[in-house]
Design goal:
By secondary structure, this protein is mainly alpha-helical. It contains 5 helices and no strands. The chain is elongated.
């Protein structure tokens, strides 16, 4: 497969992943918070303001990745931002997973984020060679 097409697919799939995470977790917290807290072994927070703030960032990253997928020759700053976000989210979620704050059901999606972080990093190292 052509490298340009491959990278466009990587960024588009990353965008779709972030959009799916946004939709699923928005629905879970807005309509089924008791199910979500039971499913992931969490306590219902007194306010969802921080969760919704996080979900807004998730969708913004998804929009950024979609923008990159449309033109991989531009928007490398967006890719750098996404790499930073993917690694930091993984680290934060890993720490709280290891502390026992939630179960693996909430952690496995963050592993997918780490994989995207690695793919985006690879792009940044190789995009000039296209």
């Amino acid at each position: 497969m052509d490298k340009r097409k491959y990278y466009k697919i990587v960024f588009l799939s990353g965008a779709l992943w972030n959009i799916a995470v946004f939709v699923i977790f928005t629905i879970l917290t807005f309509f089924a918070s008791s199910l979500a807290t039971t499913l992931f072994e969490l306590e219902i927070p007194p306010s969802f303001v921080f969760i919704y703030g996080f979900l807004i960032l998730v969708i913004v990253i998804g929009i950024g990745l979609y923008t990159v997928s449309k033109d991989i020759d531009k928007n490398h700053g967006v890719v750098q931002m996404c790499v930073f976000e993917k690694y930091l989210v993984f680290i934060v979620f890993l720490i709280f997973f290891l502390l026992g704050d939630y179960n693996f059901g909430l952690f496995w999606p963050v592993i997918i984020d780490l994989i995207y972080g690695i793919l985006f990093t690879e792009f940044l190292f190789n995009y000039k060679k296209l």
